[in-house]
Sequence to fold (626 residues):
Amino acid sequence: MGDAPLLEVERLTTVFDVGGRALPAVDQVSFTVGAGETLGLVGESGSGKSVTALSILRLVQPPGRIASGRIRFRGRDLVALREREMRALRGADISLVFQEPMTALNPVFTIGSQLEETLAVHGRATGHAARRQAVDLLGAVRMPDPARRLDEYPHQLSGGLRQRALIAMALACRPALVIADEPTTALDVTVQAEILDLLREMKARFGLSLLLITHDLGVIAETADRVAVMYAGRLVEQAPVRALFHDPKHPYTRALLASVPDDRPGTPLRAIRGAVPSLGALPPGCAFAPRCPDRFEPCDRLPPGETRVGEGRAVRCYLHGDAVEPAAAVPGAR
Amino acid sequence: MPLVEVRHLVKEFASGQGLLRRGAVVRAVDDVSFDIEEGETFGLVGESGSGKTTTGRCLLRLVEPTSGEVRFRGRDLLALSAAEMRRVRREMQIVFQDPYSSLNPRMRAGAIVEEPLVIHRMGAGPARRRRVAELFELVGLDPALASRYPHEFSGGQRQRIGLARALALEPSLVIADEPVSSLDVSVQAQVVNLLMDLQQRLQLTYLFIAHDLRLVRHICSRVAVMYRGRIVELAATAAIFDAPQHPYTRALLSAIPVLDPDAPRARLVLDETAVDRSRPLREVAAGHWAAI
Ligand SMILES: Nc1ncnc2c1ncn2[C@@H]1O[C@H](COP(=O)(O)OP(=O)(O)OP(=O)(O)O)[C@@H](O)[C@H]1O
Ligand SMILES: Nc1ncnc2c1ncn2[C@@H]1O[C@H](COP(=O)(O)OP(=O)(O)OP(=O)(O)O)[C@@H](O)[C@H]1O
Ligand code: SF4
Ligand SMILES: [Mg+2]
Ligand SMILES: [Mg+2]
Fold:
């Protein structure tokens, strides 16, 4: 495989068939995650982050479906795998950490039995060996008093400890890639900081790759190596983390960074006017056009395509190039 | 005289663990005292479950305090009859976190904004409709949208409707409980600007409950930090952020993610066992109180 990235997502389009239309929640999205790398996927509510994550794991439920594109993991195209092969891969090679640990953990089983179950299902260990490994895993995620926690139920743990248990479960089979979908959104700032530290530590210790999904630019700045910015189902900018924060190229990225409260208390914030368009009512051209301060005449015609703008950087905006990308032709759309 | 004076406020809830733990109580708010000056934005921050929302609701008697005093313009609110309280409540309004569930889905936006005027029998007919249109304009909404239902608005617009409703009775105090945290990031700044603008135009006083500390720093004049039902630090915003005294405040501030990948991370972890909850606030510098 040589230097090929661990995960390559190529022109992924995932649609929801609603009211006779195929609404593109994820529209021709391409990105890679390298071995040992953290890619931060940032975007606001409804931009398509979770649907991207679910697509990679092939967990999108009807009326949603992957309409086109490729998802290569270690060179294998996941879109073409049989469900049985996909099941073997989930949790073992790629695992998922959700936003809300309470819904991801089964309330009627102890933390220990859920960890042991995960190990058993993937043929890692059973019986006493599984129990020993479960204690080790809880220790690794810094669960205080791991042996005792094993026999506790999810509701007996605080939000932060539950998220630790979930991370332990995600790490149980030593996956190569962990997808963390808003892993700290439901947590207090102080607990969030601890969990982010933990993810960084786990990444270094187990040589993981991480796809970290969040709407919080601060979390991205602290955790990601590279960043992909999503808006209305499309990736509008990709860049190494420093480049993104020091020299954002896309008007949406710029506006988002500028709208954060800064050091001038009491002054008006630089707000972005308008609101995110809904999928059913996307403008014909650039999806950000109705809110863009830099909009000019090509912007309203067709969606811009991707333009390379330096080392490891790409942006979809006519300010940076005249590449055009018509909306995905969706097979099976009615 | 401060607009609001809170003294030794306590709120206990019966713990909801069913039959087994009958009689157990949770002290959600535990001996909390503070003043809110007219025209200021007083921030209330702290971890989840520390008692911020309960404190805000006690001020309006939306939950009945267990003990303590709440004075509004010098009047003891806890001594008021229900009818008197209703009259005072005109001056004190609350804006909720969730613009989705806090508006009645079966009422048109105009009726939602008009409802407090109807309840308090203020104006009638065309005059009242004019007032509703005025309120729409005040919060930056087109009055022509008054006939639409909540689901036809975006989150930011719904929060504006909630605000227009809260302002209908011309309150002097607005309790804003996480007013922007459920909004899209790109829309939060619009609503924050609106809150600041309305404060100037209408001389409003805000109790601003939030967990976004960057935002608190931007708009609050003073801040109280709550930890497990108690205020552990209270000071002018700059003093809290530049010279935090209590270990919880320090841990909290050090945990704010910085928008700069190169910023050094100097995380302070709170040793919870080292926090003595019984320690009272003392004035460590002029106007700067800390329970250390
Ligand atoms: N079951 C569904 N039916 C129809 N549309 C859906 C469904 N699930 C998701 N969508 C749409 O897909 C789009 C992307 O949703 P997604 O959950 O990926 O957003 P997100 O970026 O994860 O947002 P958030 O930050 O709120 O989690 C949204 O516009 C959403 O309305
Ligand atoms: N109606 C109620 N019955 C029982 N307990 C309650 C009730 N309301 C609040 N509590 C408890 O009181 C404590 C304080 O809750 P409160 O909602 O005031 O916290 P908060 O600081 O606003 O938290 P958050 O940041 O999560 O909104 C919590 O332990 C909570 O579980
Ligand atoms: S393509 Fe046009 S409208 Fe879209 S972000 Fe670039 S300048 Fe703005
Ligand atoms: Mg999501
Ligand atoms: Mg609250």
User: Anything to note?
Assistant: The interface with chain A takes residues 47-48, 154-157, 184-190, 192-193, 196-197, 211, 213-215, 217-219, 237-238, 251-252, 254-263, 265, 267, 269-270 of chain B (CB under 8 Å).
